[in-house]
């Protein structure tokens, strides 16, 4: 009996250990870091709230937040509309539906680096495929990645292309939970395809829409690889995303304490946005 | 309002076998027609073909004078009440009932009036703000009917609308559906596998089996003159008793059961002449439970009398069901409950010869 008492603890120990080392410790440590100056090499120096004061005065950080929001404003709606439209198409009995389902999902599992390099070829100013098409029909070239007013939106489109397959799958599952009989009843009532979509599909897949909004918000906030590889945050810092800035602070300038402060603040921001979304969508119901 | 005409209608799902074969039914304007048959016989399929929810493989379908084979469901002006109601869960009762009118762009005020009128008729005025999930099965059922009647369609279709209700509610709703049919004066096509519903609701009943129409007629004609053994066994409760045997016409006309235990003198049988032609052939005798009696009627010669061992007795209060074995079959007699029937004594029973049915044993067609 005595020995048995320890068995449950033994069984949960691996998980507790993993949680402590890889979750609890980093979280606590980074909160501690926000009150220190530290460049990894010299010992940590306590500086109180200096990092927070600096954050509020850091124009580049706010620009990065602003850039990220600009990205989200295009990325999230585009993601939802495109994913839902593709899911609607795939949900019909089209020929080769399973091929398209796989095709749309492929970019999701391909490495972001590969996708980004691919799109660089597509969007290049002189030799990019897109501009060559434009010149072929005698339209002017567009500086997809070199114009500070356009670059972030080009990245938003690219990120949508990369991730949309995942959301197509989510929407497909959502659409398939709507019983066919509702559409049949609506057919008999004389509903058009659009009316069926508007009055039956949309309200009935509301939970899926919420999931997609939250997932793509969180995913979108963590925008990093695309600008890091494609534009290095340029031109004129117009594609510098918040996560990229946090990365730079940590691993280019070794401002570990400040970077942790930015990360901490940014996490709170995401939490706030998601809670707002949730309240809004719950009200809609 | 309009009639519905089915001409040589056929249906196969995706290159599969025909599940509806050469169905011909002419449904008059304002008629209440019930499609009845065992599970899987194609009732729902036929109804959905009329609604436009299933494509038509062969034949012609007319609503009024218009051929509608290729007309989409949304343009057929038909309302359907589904078995599980198919009420939209995210809409209130009012919104559910108003949906079709709203899609048509009717003015708000008129929508309100029509919904309220239908709600009064079905006594669901107090439920208009509820959602489907907050109502009982019977209430949902009424809402589903309400949604159908607000649109004032040409034809109403019902697919087993009562099957999710308990027995008592089913009985009540049956009566209300009859009333509704009189008030709306509309063409109604009603699917059920319950022959009691069919008998009580239909102006006319169409009996289906495996995609074929076995017989279509008024309830009483189906009951009194079934065209074949299937209809005889399907319509009526308890089902008709059957006994295989053959006709002997050398000498006085007789029916002899296959096991030889039973010989019935048929010289007094009304259709003796037709039967005579079946001399020597296998036939099936049929008699309903209520035509086996405790006492003979005034004309004793038209009764066949037999002492039977009683297997079981069921007292229903108003009547008594007596089960007795006869060769390989189990027979049921429905007797008056006035006299107690001891379960362990043989019982003297009188079969009404005028109510006997005979069927060709091979084709199952009634011999008349
Ligand atoms: N979508 C379908 N695809 C293929 N076969 C089908 C389909 N729907 C029905 N069937 C077949 O068609 C036949 C008739 O089915 P139907 O649903 O019309 O029967 P039913 O008379 O309504 O039966 P129930 O009383 O059980 O509702 C059955 O053999 C069934 O298996
Ligand atoms: Mg059915």
Name a few traits of the molecule.
heterodimer, A: 285 residues, mainly alpha, MetI-like fold, two-stranded antiparallel sheet, 13 helices, 73% helix, B: 368 residues, alpha+beta, Rossmann fold, OB fold (Dihydrolipoamide Acetyltransferase, E2P), six-stranded mixed sheet, five-stranded antiparallel sheet, 9 helices, 21 strands, binds adenosine-5'-triphosphate, binds magnesium ion
Report on the biggest sheet of chain A. Answer: 2 strands, antiparallel
Low-confidence stretches of chain B: none
> What is the top-level CATH class of the largest domain in chain B?
Alpha Beta
The outline of chain A comes out as globular
Helix segment tally of chain B:
9
The number of domains of chain A:
1
Q: Please identify, by name, the CATH architecture of chain A.
A: Orthogonal Bundle
Strand count, sense and barrel status of the largest sheet of chain B are: 6 strands, mixed
| Multimeric state | heterodimer
Outline of chain B: elongated
Separation of termini of chain A?
Answer: 54 Å
Number of helices of chain A: 13
User: What is the CATH domain class of chain A?
Assistant: Mainly Alpha
Query: Any idea what the radius of gyration of chain A is?
Result: 24 Å
How would you summarize this macromolecular structure in one to three sentences?
The complex is a heterodimer of chains A (285) and B (368). Chain A is mainly α and 285 residues long. Chain A has helices spanning 7-33, 50-57, 59-91, 97-109, 112-123, 129-136, 151-176, 180-188, 193-204, 206-221, 225-230, 242-251, 256-284, and strands at residues 36-37, 45-46.
List the helices and strands and how they pair.
The complex is a heterodimer of chains A (285) and B (368).
Chain A: H1 7-33, E1 36-37, E2 45-46, H2 50-57, H3 59-91, H4 97-109, H5 112-123, H6 129-136, H7 151-176, H8 180-188, H9 193-204, H10 206-221, H11 225-230, H12 242-251, H13 256-284
Antiparallel strand pairs in A: 1-2
Helix pairs in contact in A: 1-13, 2-13, 3-7, 3-10, 3-12, 4-7, 7-10, 10-13, 12-13
Chain B: E1 4-12, E2 18-27, E3 32-36, H1 43-51, E4 58-63, E5 66-67, E6 78-81, H2 93-103, H3 108-122, H4 137-149, E7 155-159, H5 167-184, E8 187-192, H6 195-201, E9 204-209, E10 212-217, H7 219-224, H8 229-234, E11 241-248, E12 254-257, E13 263-265, H9 272-276, E14 282-287, E15 292-293, E16 303-308, E17 312-315, E18 319-326, E19 329-336, E20 347-352, E21 357-360
Parallel strand pairs in B: 3-8, 3-9, 6-7, 7-8
Antiparallel strand pairs in B: 1-2, 1-4, 4-5, 9-10, 11-12, 11-14, 12-13, 14-21, 15-20, 16-20, 17-18, 18-19
Bound molecules: adenosine-5'-triphosphate and magnesium ion.
The site of magnesium ion has 2 residues of chain B, from helix 1.
